[in-house]
């Protein structure tokens, strides 16, 4: 449903855009030439730091638990390649259409300019506003519009429940049973998981309660934190057999702490490093985490021979599969 909405809504909206598109963009308060150019960010030419920061979003995929768990749930290894292709195609389609929606929506929703016109909703609601405008004012099919909005909610819930399940299983099985109480019964582990789910959901509710909070800002912070903490560890575990437990812990902690310091601690002239440099924290966190994994792994005991043999076994399978 979400894919159908992403495809249909901007096409219909484009059909209702009347007049010169560049002129409409100019009416919305932007320089149409710069707005449509990949080499501009707002009213200025894009800088190398902005290019690096934007590209760094791709690194985050390596450390997203709710994405990785989808691959872990695949029935057999032969489906991995197909799943990878599907995932990449979906990302390309969804991100491309998201850009199209933002560009078309700015002209389509005139004279209302989201985030600028008095009383107008946030720019983050552009897709919802386009659906409402299309299926309420332009086409009298509110039922279809409601289905498309349900598609948005379904996508949100899909990500949210995946994150909750990952948190729950990590705390209950990996931490509680794996470290603190290996003898814990299944019922006890289940109860810990349920409690964790309630706590995490409550914290998310509190964060979302702030009317001034930005979804984009929250996603950016979470993406950087998870990507810097888990991304380098996943990459090094797959491609470097010398990675060991101390190195993994060092990389995880250093990546997460780097993002927190970079985004929230004013250590450069009263400003956070992000504000002072404009560089996305994921870039710095990912690099720092990689360095810690390598250095600490080399300074500590190598993994057991059985682990290295298992690594070589899977590596050999991959080469054979090719």
From TrEMBL:
It is found in: Cell membrane. One of its GO terms (biological process) is proline transport. PANTHER family: SODIUM/PROLINE SYMPORTER-RELATED, SODIUM_PROLINE SYMPORTER. InterPro entries: Na/Glc_symporter_sf (IPR038377), Na/Pro_symporter (IPR011851), Na/solute_symporter (IPR001734), Sodium:Solute_Symporter (IPR050277). Keywords: Amino-acid transport, Cell membrane, Ion transport, Membrane, Sodium, Sodium transport, Symport, Transmembrane, Transmembrane helix, Transport. One of its GO terms (cellular component) is plasma membrane. Catalyzes the sodium-dependent uptake of extracellular L-proline. The chain crosses the membrane at residues 56-73, 85-109, 139-160, 189-209, 215-240, 247-267, 279-299. Pfam families: SSF. It catalyses: L-proline(in) + Na(+)(in) = L-proline(out) + Na(+)(out). This is Sodium/proline symporter. It is a multi-pass membrane protein. Gene3D superfamilies: Sodium/glucose cotransporter. GO terms for molecular function: proline:sodium symporter activity; sodium ion binding. Belongs to the sodium:solute symporter (SSF) (TC 2.A.21) family.
């Amino acid at each position: 449903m979400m894919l159908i909405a992403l495809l249909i809504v901007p096409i219909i909206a484009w059909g209702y855009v009347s007049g010169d598109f560049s002129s409409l963009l100019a009416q919305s308060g932007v320089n149409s030439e710069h707005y449509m150019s990949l080499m501009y960010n707002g009213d200025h030419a894009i800088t190398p730091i902005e290019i690096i920061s934007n590209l760094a979003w791709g690194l985050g995929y390596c450390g997203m638990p709710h994405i990785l768990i989808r691959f872990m749930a695949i029935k057999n290894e032969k489906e991995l390649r197909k799943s990878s292709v599907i995932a990449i195609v979906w990302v390309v389609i969804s991100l491309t259409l998201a850009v199209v929606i933002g560009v078309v929506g700015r002209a389509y929703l005139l004279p209302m300019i989201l985030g600028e016109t008095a009383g107008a909703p946030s720019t983050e609601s552009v897709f919802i506003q386009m659906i409402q405008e299309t299926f309420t004012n332009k086409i009298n099919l509110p039922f279809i519009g409601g289905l498309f909005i349900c598609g948005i909610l379904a996508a949100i819930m899909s990500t949210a429940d995946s994150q909750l399940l990952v948190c729950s299983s990590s705390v209950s099985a990996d931490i509680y049973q794996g470290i603190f109480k290996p003898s814990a019964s299944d019922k006890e582990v289940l109860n810990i998981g349920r409690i964790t789910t309630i706590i995490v959901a409550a914290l998310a509710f509190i964060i979302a309660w702030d009317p001034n909070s930005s979804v984009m800002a929250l996603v950016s912070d979470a993406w950087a934190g998870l990507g810097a903490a888990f991304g380098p560890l996943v990459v090094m575990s797959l491609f470097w057999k010398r990675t060991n437990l101390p190195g993994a812990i060092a990389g995880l902690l250093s990546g997460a702490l780097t993002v927190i310091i970079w985004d929230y601690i004013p250590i450069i002239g009263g400003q956070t490093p992000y504000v002072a440099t404009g560089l996305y924290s994921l870039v710095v966190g990912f690099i720092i985490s990689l360095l810690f994994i390598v250095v600490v792994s080399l300074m500590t005991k190598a993994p057991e021979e059985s682990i290295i043999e298992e690594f070589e076994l899977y590596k050999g399978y991959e080469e054979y599969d090719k």
